[in-house]
Specification:
With about 450 residues, the protein is an alpha/beta fold. It is built from 18 helices and 20 strands. The chain folds into two domains: about 280 residues, Medium-chain alcohol dehydrogenases, catalytic domain (Quinone Oxidoreductase, Chain A, domain 1, Alpha-Beta Complex), CATH 3.90.180.10; about 140 residues, 3-Layer(aba) Sandwich (Rossmann fold), CATH 3.40.50.720. Helix content is about 30%, strand content about 20%. It binds NADP nicotinamide-adenine-dinucleotide phosphate (NAP). NADP nicotinamide-adenine-dinucleotide phosphate binds next to helix 4, helix 7, helix 8 and strand 12.
């Protein structure tokens, strides 16, 4: 879907040099621009959707693309030329100001420190994924150099906070970069802490590299890490939204673990993506027309039972684990269908966060509901390694130009996409950045393009 005219205003010499593969030494000698093209929402518009139904709140009205000043760089940060980024659901939340305006997060961050104060601006540069080239390193950065090719994970923590020393997700001031901080990845130049950087998979293009870190790391913690509900061989795992952002990674992690995924999707096209990915058992919820809610206040246990029967008829038993994120629409059913002693692991509530389920099914059958959120550094690196090794493939289904970021977010808001949508920033054209064609051949072009071919 690339193809909108690219606004070259503000694309400086240094970005041209990055695009043309200049060396780190050459980049380090070139002056940085004072501004960068970026996608942002405006504080002055944060109330514009008051009284509007969620589905009618339009990201195309609130996501602007224009030049913004580059902030001063903190000692532990780098400036990154973002070759490509991606749309995550959190950018949808920011753009429709739900469940709250993200300017509150920025104002709170501003109270933390001198460097935190930079974030509370009248605009919020969004985006929680990115792949690119380091342009400058702060004075305290040790492990990375100008010119390094990297991807970015979005865990933004203060390493001086002792509450995060065992598991950085437990840090009391843990934030998601580009959602709870400013200067996110949907820009030509972004600002990230050095400890968010990870090596870019060499066999992937920029746009393929940019769509993974947030969703892959989230699913890894939920289903592989001991901090989630780790899957083991022979487990049955029910995955809602199995061809979506986190779901498509969940399916791959479950398959890699020797377990059996049961993917739920809402169309035949999405079902065929899952089949090609290796997920044999798929339920099309549109076709089944489950009505878990009879009215906004009452759920129908017979519909939970019908889903349970459908799962049993596919895989011969109840799920050991349910990968939950739709929230209010599905949680009652998820708790019901999980096997005795099984786990419902949840990281979200797309359809509503005030959840209802029948607690008798939880306690009498000794089930566990486990909350999970993004991933710590170890988990993000481990998840990135699955990509580097070609054991997980990017679910890239479409690519938009940065100027089209509102359209891209609109697609995700209305569930019109599959997998992940990539966004070209500095790269401006698709297919660049592959430096290991041998590994690419080994993983296979066909497997790497499953989501694009089904579009
Ligand atoms: P996504 O790409 O939009 O995929 C979500 C999928 O869920 C949809 O494709 C849809 O699949 C399914 N779905 C949506 N509403 C549903 C409903 N009412 N009932 C059943 N299925 C429904 O989004 P994503 O990137 O996977 O993210 C999913 C959620 O997780 C979002 O709320 C996001 O904010 C959250 N999230 C949280 C974290 C975290 O760290 N806590 C990280 C990433 C994402 P079908 O229509 O095919 O069934």
């Amino acid at each position: 879907m690339t193809g909108a005219p690219t606004n070259l205003a503000g694309v400086s010499e240094i970005l041209d040099a990055v695009r043309n593969g200049a060396s780190g030494e050459a980049l380090a000698e070139m002056p940085l621009p004072a501004t960068t093209r970026a996608a942002f929402v405006l504080r002055s518009e944060q109330d514009m959707f008051e009284g509007v139904a969620s589905k009618d709140k339009d990201p195309r009205k609130t996501l602007h693309v224009d030049e913004v000043p580059l902030p001063e760089l903190a000692p532990d940060e780098v400036y990154l030329a973002v070759m490509a980024s991606s749309i995550n659901f959190n950018t949808v939340w920011t753009s429709i100001f739900e469940p709250m305006s993200t300017f509150g997060f920025l104002d709170r961050l501003a109270k933390d420190s001198y460097w935190g104060r930079r974030h509370a601006l009248d605009y919020h540069v969004v985006g929680s994924d990115g792949a690119g080239v380091i342009l400058r390193t702060g004075s305290a950065v040790r492990n990375w150099r100008v010119g390094d090719e990297v991807t970015v994970h979005c865990n933004y923590v203060d390493d001086q906070d002792p509450s995060g020393h065992d598991d950085s997700m437990l840090s009391s001031n843990q934030r998601i970069w580009g959602f709870e901080t400013n200067f996110g990845g949907l820009a030509d130049i972004c600002v990230v802490k050095a400890n968010q950087l990870m090596p870019k998979p060499t066999h992937l293009s920029w746009e393929e590299s940019a769509v993974n870190a947030l969703c892959n790391s989230t699913s890894y913690r939920m289903l592989v890490s001991r901090n989630g509900a780790p899957v083991t061989q022979g487990d049955r795992v029910l995955i809602w939204g199995a061809s979506g952002g986190i779901g498509s990674f969940a399916v791959q992690h479950v398959l890699n673990s020797g377990a059996t995924p049961i993917g739920i999707v809402s169309s035949a096209a999405k079902a065929s993506i899952l089949h090609e990915l290796g997920c044999e058992h798929v339920i099309n919820r549109e076709e089944k027309n489950y009505k878990f809610w009879m009215d906004p206040h009452t759920q129908d246990e017979s519909e939970w039972r019908r889903l349970g029967k459908d799962i049993r008829s596919l895989v011969g038993g109840d799920p050991d684990i349910v990968f939950e994120h739709p929230g209010r629409s599905t949680m009652g059913a998820s708790v019901f269908v999980t096997r005795r002693g099984g786990t419902i692991v949840t990281c979200a509530a797309t359809s509503g966060y005030m959840i209802e389920y029948d607690n008798r099914h939880l306690w009498m059958k000794l089930k566990t509901i486990k909350g999970s959120h993004f991933s710590n550094y170890r988990e993000a690196w481990a998840a990135n390694q699955t990509l580097i090794d070609g054991k997980v493939v990017p679910p890239l289904s479409a690519v938009f130009a940065l100027e089209q970021v509102g359209d891209a977010a609109y697609e995700v808001h209305h569930n019109r996409h599959e997998g992940k949508i990539g966004v070209l920033c500095v790269a401006q054209e698709e297919g660049l950045g592959i430096t290991n064609p041998e590994l690419r051949d080994k993983v296979g072009e066909k497997r790497l393009t499953i989501f694009r071919r089904h579009k």
